[in-house]
Amino acid sequence: MSTAVTGVDVPGTGASTPASPPAARTRGLRKTYGSTVAVDHVDLDIPEGAVLGMLGPNGSGKTTTIRMLLGLVRPTAGEASLLGHPMPAGAAHALPHVGALVEGPGFHPFLSGRENLLRLGAAEPKLSGREIPRAVDAALERVGLAGAATRRYRGYSLGMKQRLGLAAALLVPRRMVVLDEPTNGLDPAGTREVRSIIAELHAAGVTVLVSSHLLAEVEATCTHVAVLHAGTVVAQGELAELLESGSPGLVVSTPDAAEAVEALRRNRIPSRLTPEGVRVDLTATTAPEVVSALVHAGVSVHEARRARTGLEDLFARLTQQESNGEVSR
Amino acid sequence: MTETLESAPPPSPAADGPSRAPLPRLLRAELRWIFRRPRTLVVLGLLAAIPVIIGVALTLVDSPGPPDGGGDGDGGSLVATAAGNALVLPIAALAMALGLLLPLTAAMVGGDALAGEQAHGTLRGWLLAPVSRGRLLFVKAFGVATFAVCAAGVMALTGIVTGLVINGTDALVSLSGTTLTFPEALLKVAIAAGWVSLQLWAVGAVALAISACTEHPMVVLASVLGGVVVFSVLQFLDALDWLHPFLLNASWQDLADVLRDPMPGGALAEGALRAACYIAIALSLAYARLSTKDG
CB–CB of A173 and B7 under 8 A? Predict the structure, then answer.
């Protein structure tokens, strides 16, 4: 019944900008550590300008994929390209335009936040020596750390450390920003700020890759989604498309639910009772027909709306289904 | 968080040739990092204190003048000579510390350079900037070398000052019995400090090679320390004399040659050459490991 979702390529990936090459792409990516297969057959496309949310349970290969994409780890097999340059060979071409927060923030505890960023800034090819202090101050301001800039990193809270990591990724105007679990350790306000930063980046045309296990986070900020499970991509595509790819349905809220189900059965329309109302299967019929059938039967209808598969449902379906089939690997 | 929108629209693809940060900037950033670290400063401070402590202790103890054997080269008799001689004190201090203490500090810096950064997750920051792995190793090797020069230099400096305060410029007698002028004595101390720096750099290079293989600075420290101890033990085994030329510390005892007049260069040159070989091999190994390492 699930149609396009289980396939690796959902048509429409990158449909918004058909002509431009993807900002990042992997083909047959595989990484093994000894006999452990961390990632296998990962074919990922990140369209230019997209905000791609990478979802997956812990240990599904999100971070490994990101590290290979950034050239930190050499793939065992397959290839990755970033901004059109093969990785890791093209790192010198691609990485200056890419900001990344991978595997949590990493900084020197005995230096202040500002000094840590100055040290990173010294290595940024796109910054001239004079621009570094200004870029550092702007980045600190942007993540709300200006007040704590001169304090030692040692004394930072988890959220402040995370913000500093974010500041490092935003030190230079980027073409692509990669954020691995950016909201770890952030309070709700911090989470909202990260969301607004991602929105700003998106508005400026920057491609963003966010990995997260917070589904609501991804649903709120992303245009595209890739779901990883057990080291492979089990679904990817535009968020809206993926959400609708489940079986179409209509949720009808009515005071006389039992009567509604009865009336629909008389009209040969499959339906069932759910806690949110009567769920009607639309594979063989259309919404107006359902409503008219109900009204003719004298059932009062408060509301009828399209049943959207929540990302959570989708995620649960994909990862469970896959784990049944792929446990043996 | 703020209203400023820092990210500009993507630049044209034409502008994305390879680019890298200027090397002097990286070297400066590395040195600032090394010398901002409290640990480094404490170690340098302690090293600076050693010649002072030796000088003061010898003066207070009021030890006898020149030793009986005229100095057979080992640290003990050198120290005895150092009591009455401003020239000998810094070199005796260096010779003493070179046995274990100075290698320990070089290993510490080498361990922090890669393993320590890896442990903090900070190595990734530079790799992603990006700094190529070859340049990264160059910067790290430069940092270790600078520390080696500073460590030897600071000991030589406080050694000279302490020696001068205690003995003045009189009695700058070499181990061969000739009297030296003050500039000649300074030159000898500088040669000794330079030679010790080179040996330390070799230790640091080995530390870097180990550092590239682990993310625990402690492993680096323990391996280098263990290596120095084992090498010292091997020196005493005559049955293994075929092995001795390959041991880095084979010529460390010959530092006292600097104090002879004229200076016999053979052993010192051999030691320098040995250190250079160690540096070349260790840095090659470090590069081989670093270039394939997961960042």
Answer: yes
Residues whose CB is less than 8 angstroms from the CB of residue B127 and which lie 6 or more positions away in sequence, other chains included: A72, B133, B136, B295
> What distance in Å separates the CA atoms of residue A83 and residue B151, rounded to the nearest whole number?
46
**Which tokens belong to B34?**
């090394």
Please check whether residues A74 and A200 belong to one and the same domain: yes
Contact B18 A93 (CB under 8 A): yes
Contacts of B6 in chain A (CB under 8 A): 138-139, 142, 170, 173
Would the pLDDT of B251 be above 90?
no
What is the per-residue pLDDT for A313?
Answer: 74
- Structurally, chain A folds into a number of domains equal to 2
The verdict on A59 and A186 lying in the same domain is yes
Domain membership of residue A314 (yes or no) is: no
CATH number at residue A209: 3.40.50.300
Mutate to test the interface with B, among A81, A95, A111, A140 (most CBs of B within 10 A): A95
Q: What is the pLDDT of residues A197-224, one digit of tens each?
A: 899 999 999 999 998 877 777 778 889 9
Mean pLDDT for the stretch of residues A312-316:
75
The pLDDT of residue B74 is: 47
3-state SS, residue B234: helix
What is the residue-wise DSSP string for A124-150?
Answer: -TTS-TTHHHHHHHHHHHHTT-GGGTT
Q: What is the C-alpha separation between A301 and A258, in angstroms, rounded?
A: 13
**Residue A193 and residue A264 in one domain:** no
Q: Supply the CATH number for residue A284's domain.
A: 3.30.70.100
From A194, A219, A244, give the residue that closes a domain: A244
Residue-wise pLDDT for B174-205, tens only, equals 777 788 888 888 899 999 999 999 999 999 99
pLDDT tens figures, A120-174: 999 999 888 889 999 999 999 998 899 999 999 999 998 889 999 999 999 999 9
Instruction: Determine the structural domain holding residue A292 and report its residue range.
Output: 249-306
A317 found inside a domain? no
Q: Is the ipTM of this complex over 0.90?
A: no
Inform me whether the pLDDT recorded for B40 exceeds 80. yes
Report how far residue A43's alpha carbon sits from residue A234's, in angstroms, rounded to the nearest whole number: 10
Same domain, A202 and A259: no
